[in-house]
Amino acid sequence: MLNLQKTELIISAGKPEQFPKNGVPHVVFSGRSNVGKSSLINTLLNRKSLARVSSAPGKTVTVNFYLIDDALIFADLPGYGFAKRSYERKEGFSTLTDSYLTQCRNIALVLQLVDLKVGLTEYDKMMLKWLADTGTPFCVIGTKADKLNKTELTSRVAQLCSDPDVGAAPVIPFSSLKGTGKDDVWRHINKFIQ
After folding, report:
1. What is the tally of structural domains in the chain?
2. pTM of the model
3. Is the distance from CB of 188 to CB of 170 less than 8 angstroms?
4. Nearest CA to 38 among 91, 104, 131, 113?
5. Alpha helices, DSSP H only, in 72-181?
6. Maximum alpha-carbon separation in the chain
7. Which CATH number goes with the domain that contains 107?
8. For residue 31, is it left (φ>0), alpha (ψ between -120 and 50) or beta?
9. Domain range holding 126?
10. Region of residue 35 (left: phi > 0; alpha: psi -120 to 50; beta: else)
11. What's the chain's average pLDDT?
12. Nearest C-alpha neighbor of 62 from the set 28, 86, 96
């Protein structure tokens, strides 16, 4: 059992040479800007503001690494697809993200976050295709589940489950507001870090 009280932000890496090389497994949080990565991390770790929820989408420009009980790292990737960023900065983010995904040998699982109200974007589909092509284990977290009624929620989750880019990956509806899906996400993480 991980001691979640023993969690710290160890580095906000803006360059590949800053990525941690301590050998513990990494769980990666990926998704578009404003999809709820920080909220998911805070909910999973029973914290209110360990991972900072940005006031403006697309503000996070680093890969943030959180060390949990000296045994697991949560890696929070910069959000992608936010239109107000300059082209050069978007390219910079994708280069940093690409460096991490291709260089890190300790990725145990990628949590691909998708806003249930928005559905899969082209960027999400590109990421899912890359994950499938590289054989990287992933699961899809459908965020902001509390913003949909029960019928809409069932329909959106079914759409994700049947999308060819999602394939056989698990889809977990999640709400940071209500804590919905938190235990399911941890159960899935634990399968990959044992």
Report:
1. 1
2. 0.90
3. yes
4. 113
5. 87-103, 122-134, 150-162
6. 47
7. 3.40.50.300
8. left
9. 7-193
10. alpha
11. 88
12. 96
- 26 or 57: which leads in pLDDT: 26
Buried b (16+ CB within 10 A) or exposed e, 159-184: ebeebebbeebebbbbbbeeebbbee
Distances (CA, A) of 187 to 48, 98, 112, 192: 21, 27, 16, 9
Region class of 17: left (phi > 0), else alpha (psi between -120 and 50), else beta: alpha
* Contact call for residues 46 and 54 (beta carbons, < 8 A): no
Q: What are phi and psi of 144, to 5 degrees?
A: 60, 35
Residue 7: pLDDT band with limits 50, 70, 90? very high
Q: Which tokens sit at 59?
A: 């503000």
Structure tokens at 119: 């559905």
Q: Provide the pLDDT for residue 85.
A: 44
What CA–CA distance (Å, rounded) separates 153 from 106?
34
| Residue 92, domain member (yes or no) | yes
pLDDT at 54: 52
